[in-house]
Amino acid sequence: MDWVAEHLPFEVSAVLSHDDVRRIIDWNLEYFRSKGVAGNGQSAHVHGPVIVGGAETVDHVLRRAEALGSPYTPAQVHAVLDAQMTYLEVIGAVGPEAPPGEAEG
Protein backbone atom coordinates (compact mmCIF):
# COMPACT_ATOMS: atom_id res chain seq x y z
CA MET A 1 0.00 0.00 0.00
CA ASP A 2 2.84 2.41 0.79
CA TRP A 3 4.42 1.79 -2.64
CA VAL A 4 1.15 2.68 -4.34
CA ALA A 5 0.67 5.82 -2.23
CA GLU A 6 4.23 6.93 -2.97
CA HIS A 7 3.74 6.53 -6.73
CA LEU A 8 0.57 8.60 -7.07
CA PRO A 9 0.58 11.89 -8.98
CA PHE A 10 1.01 14.86 -6.63
CA GLU A 11 -2.50 16.17 -7.28
CA VAL A 12 -3.94 12.86 -6.05
CA SER A 13 -1.55 12.22 -3.16
CA ALA A 14 -2.19 15.75 -1.90
CA VAL A 15 -5.88 14.88 -1.43
CA LEU A 16 -6.02 11.18 -0.53
CA SER A 17 -4.81 9.83 2.80
CA HIS A 18 -3.11 6.46 3.14
CA ASP A 19 -6.43 5.18 4.55
CA ASP A 20 -8.17 6.36 1.37
CA VAL A 21 -5.60 4.57 -0.79
CA ARG A 22 -5.96 1.40 1.29
CA ARG A 23 -9.76 1.54 0.98
CA ILE A 24 -9.60 1.94 -2.81
CA ILE A 25 -7.12 -0.95 -3.07
CA ASP A 26 -9.34 -3.13 -0.85
CA TRP A 27 -12.34 -2.46 -3.10
CA ASN A 28 -10.24 -3.24 -6.16
CA LEU A 29 -9.12 -6.54 -4.61
CA GLU A 30 -12.76 -7.27 -3.79
CA TYR A 31 -13.51 -6.77 -7.50
CA PHE A 32 -10.58 -9.06 -8.44
CA ARG A 33 -11.97 -11.78 -6.15
CA SER A 34 -15.42 -11.45 -7.74
CA LYS A 35 -13.76 -12.18 -11.10
CA GLY A 36 -11.77 -15.13 -9.75
CA VAL A 37 -8.43 -13.34 -9.99
CA ALA A 38 -7.25 -12.89 -6.40
CA GLY A 39 -6.71 -15.91 -4.24
CA ASN A 40 -4.31 -17.99 -2.27
CA GLY A 41 -4.70 -21.17 -4.28
CA GLN A 42 -8.04 -22.02 -2.68
CA SER A 43 -10.13 -20.21 -5.31
CA ALA A 44 -12.18 -22.02 -7.92
CA HIS A 45 -10.18 -22.48 -11.12
CA VAL A 46 -11.10 -19.99 -13.81
CA HIS A 47 -11.10 -21.37 -17.36
CA GLY A 48 -9.56 -19.05 -19.92
CA PRO A 49 -7.96 -15.65 -19.55
CA VAL A 50 -9.33 -13.14 -17.07
CA ILE A 51 -9.22 -9.48 -17.98
CA VAL A 52 -9.43 -6.88 -15.23
CA GLY A 53 -9.01 -3.16 -15.29
CA GLY A 54 -10.57 -0.25 -17.04
CA ALA A 55 -13.92 1.39 -16.59
CA GLU A 56 -15.66 -1.63 -15.02
CA THR A 57 -13.13 -1.76 -12.19
CA VAL A 58 -13.30 1.98 -11.58
CA ASP A 59 -17.11 1.83 -11.59
CA HIS A 60 -17.05 -0.92 -8.96
CA VAL A 61 -14.80 1.15 -6.70
CA LEU A 62 -16.87 4.31 -7.21
CA ARG A 63 -20.12 2.42 -6.40
CA ARG A 64 -18.58 1.05 -3.19
CA ALA A 65 -17.30 4.50 -2.27
CA GLU A 66 -20.66 6.14 -2.92
CA ALA A 67 -22.45 3.51 -0.82
CA LEU A 68 -20.24 4.41 2.14
CA GLY A 69 -20.23 8.16 1.54
CA SER A 70 -16.60 8.37 0.42
CA PRO A 71 -16.39 11.14 -2.19
CA TYR A 72 -13.64 9.89 -4.53
CA THR A 73 -13.42 11.15 -8.08
CA PRO A 74 -12.91 8.91 -11.12
CA ALA A 75 -9.48 10.54 -11.63
CA GLN A 76 -8.42 9.68 -8.07
CA VAL A 77 -9.58 6.08 -8.40
CA HIS A 78 -7.88 5.71 -11.80
CA ALA A 79 -4.61 7.01 -10.34
CA VAL A 80 -4.68 4.58 -7.40
CA LEU A 81 -5.61 1.61 -9.60
CA ASP A 82 -2.94 2.50 -12.17
CA ALA A 83 -0.31 2.67 -9.42
CA GLN A 84 -1.57 -0.60 -7.95
CA MET A 85 -1.38 -2.37 -11.33
CA THR A 86 2.14 -1.01 -11.85
CA TYR A 87 3.11 -2.41 -8.45
CA LEU A 88 1.60 -5.81 -9.28
CA GLU A 89 3.54 -5.85 -12.56
CA VAL A 90 6.79 -4.85 -10.83
CA ILE A 91 6.52 -7.72 -8.34
CA GLY A 92 5.48 -10.18 -11.07
CA ALA A 93 1.97 -10.79 -9.72
CA VAL A 94 0.31 -10.05 -13.07
CA GLY A 95 1.41 -10.82 -16.56
CA PRO A 96 1.53 -8.73 -19.69
CA GLU A 97 -1.53 -8.04 -21.77
CA ALA A 98 -2.54 -11.03 -23.89
CA PRO A 99 -1.79 -10.78 -27.62
CA PRO A 100 -4.77 -9.84 -29.84
CA GLY A 101 -7.11 -12.78 -30.35
CA GLU A 102 -5.71 -14.81 -27.45
CA ALA A 103 -7.97 -13.25 -24.79
CA GLU A 104 -11.13 -14.22 -26.66
CA GLY A 105 -10.54 -17.79 -25.64
- Overall pLDDT metric: 82
- What is the radius of gyration? 14 Å
Number of strands: 0
Approximate helicity band: 40-55%
Residue fraction in strands:
under 5%
Give start-end ranges of low-pLDDT stretches.
none
The run of helices and strands is HHHHH
Distance between the termini: 33 Å
The 3D shape can be described as: globular
The helix/strand class is mainly alpha
Largest sheet: none
Q: DSSP helix count?
A: 5
Account of the 3D structure:
The chain has helices spanning 2-6, 10-13, 18-34, 55-67, 74-90. It has 105 residues and is mainly alpha-helical. The model has no long low-confidence stretch (mean pLDDT 82). The protein has one domain. Helix 3 crosses helix 5 and helix 4 (55-67) packs across helix 5 (74-90).
Give the SSE layout.
Layout: H1 2-6, H2 10-13, H3 18-34, H4 55-67, H5 74-90
Question: Summed up, what is this model?
Answer:
The protein has helices spanning 2-6, 10-13, 18-34, 55-67, 74-90. It has 105 residues and is mostly helical.
Salient structural properties:
105 residues, mainly alpha, globular
